[in-house]
Amino acid sequence: MAQGRAVQSAPQHTVEWSGGRVGSKALIREINEALVLDVVRRRGTTSRAEITNATGLSPATVTGITSQLVRDGLLLESDVLRGTGGRPARLLELGRDAVVVAGVRLSPDAIEVALVDLRGDVVSNHRMPLSATDPETAADAVVAAVAAVRAVRPDAALRGVSIALSGIVDRRTGVVRHSGALGWQEVPFAAMVAQRTGGRAAIDSLVNSVATGLVLVDEALAERDALVFSVGASLGASLLVAGRIHRGYGGSAGGFAHSALGVRAGGRPCHCGGSDCLETWSSVWGLQREMERRGTAALDLDALEAANVLREGGAHLGIAIANAAKMFGPERVVLVLSPEVRATAFAASCREAFAGEYAFGDGAAPELVTVPADPDVFARGAGYSMITELFSADRADST
Ligand SMILES: [Zn+2]
Q1: C-alpha angle with apex 234: 349 to 232, nearest 5 degrees?
Q2: How many helices, marked H, and strands, marked E, lie in the chain?
Q3: Residue range 222-372, CATH number
Q4: Spatial contact of 101 and 159, defined as CB atoms under 8 Å apart
Q5: Dist. CA 323 → ligand 1 center (Å)
Q6: CA of 259 to the centre of ligand 1 (A)
Q7: Full pLDDT tens readout for the chain, 399 residues
Q8: Cα(237) to centroid(ligand 1), Å
Q9: Nearest-angstrom CA–CA distance, 252 and 239
Q10: How far is the CA of 274 from the centre of ligand 1 (A)?
């Protein structure tokens, strides 16, 4: 919807976006606000006339929307007068100070928070240990961590808390369907956090959060088809269709970690209860487990056996992502690698196997880009997920 056409009335296709809110004036205003904000975001500084041209909205509508956004602090009006003849035009840019979002990475042992402003800049960071992984403790800890980081910008309105965690997450309902890392099943975590803060809360998987962040900051990914794979304690995947995350039924898209390499022979038990999942070969959890089984210190990179485990794990992942890419046909494949595997035989072997799968008969391989999974990339990405909602019409997917 980023550069889509303006919605002046309620056309048939709003059914997909809005559920029960079809045709409501509030929804149309939200969509039009998103269109206006997105034009300003992309252009940096722009005029009402340019917004009118870019969105197809009427000048009166643009004037009404921009006036409200200026009052809300989401847009700033400069005093610069443009041009010498005719009516002077005041320029608009995104407001920086009025609105912030707290992006949170929730992992089994720690909570990282990044306070993100409307332009996607991180205003403040905070990290605190997590004493226990049960949902109640985790929700309390998220709220405490957000309060700590929030003190840096007490005047800015907190638009909400956006939480990234490892697992299958239904962003629309705010329910964690399954998280092996946290040991959760069907936990309505977004509602639990929202109840405590009295504000909005949303959840997403780690990899979807990173993918959203990548699209917001990287114009090359906007409106493109791309696959994003993350390798950390668990494996994750995100499917970007025309720059938007495809979530699948119940948020299940991208759950490729527990797919099989071939016939399951039972050789590598997986934490999911099955065996021989890709997770057992190529996640950091699986790599460490296999090294222990072979009597090698976990991720002792000098050991030959460790190198073999890493090479095998990388090769299996490279083939798996090539298989997924052949099915989906993306322009780009992004590999988000955690520090444990980034500069190892794993990454090299993964690239090699991926390229090898395109040696015959399938045309050119999509571009493969590696992105480091720095500690704050997930928290920032989670914040971006909620910031991005301001720029897209897809508002009905958070609590
Ligand atoms: Zn499994």
Answers
A1: 60
A2: 13, 16
A3: 3.30.420.40
A4: yes
A5: 18
A6: 7
A7: 334 444 443 333 333 333 344 457 777 788 888 889 889 988 888 999 999 999 889 999 999 999 999 998 889 988 665 555 666 678 899 887 888 999 999 999 999 999 998 888 888 999 999 999 999 999 999 999 999 998 888 888 898 999 999 888 898 899 999 888 899 999 999 999 999 999 999 999 888 888 887 777 777 777 789 999 999 888 999 999 988 889 888 778 888 899 998 889 888 999 888 999 999 999 999 999 998 888 876 555 566 778 889 999 999 999 999 999 999 999 999 999 988 888 889 999 999 999 999 998 768 899 999 988 876 788 888 888 888 777 776 543 333
A8: 15
A9: 11
A10: 5
How far away, in angstroms, is 268 Cα from ligand 1 center?
9
For helices 284-293 and 304-328, give the axis angle rounded to 10 degrees: 150
Name the residue ranges covered by the structural domains of the chain: 14-94, 99-212+378-389, 222-372
CATH of domain 99-212+378-389: 3.30.420.40
Sign of CA dihedral 292, 352, 223, 324: negative
Q: How far is the CA of 289 from the centre of ligand 1 (A)?
A: 13
Give the distance (Å) from ligand 1 centre to CA of residue 365.
28
Distance 256 CA to ligand 1 centre (A): 9
Q: Which of 251, 195, 240 is nearest to 215 (CA)?
A: 240
Residue 330: both structure tokens together: 């993306």
Rounded Cα distance, 5 and 127, in Å = 41
Question: Does 99-212+378-389 match 222-372 in CATH topology?
Answer: yes
How much distance in Å is there from the Cα of 182 to the middle of ligand 1? 15
Structure-block tokens of residue 142: 């998220």
User: Model pTM?
Assistant: 0.77
CATH number of 14-94: 1.10.10.10
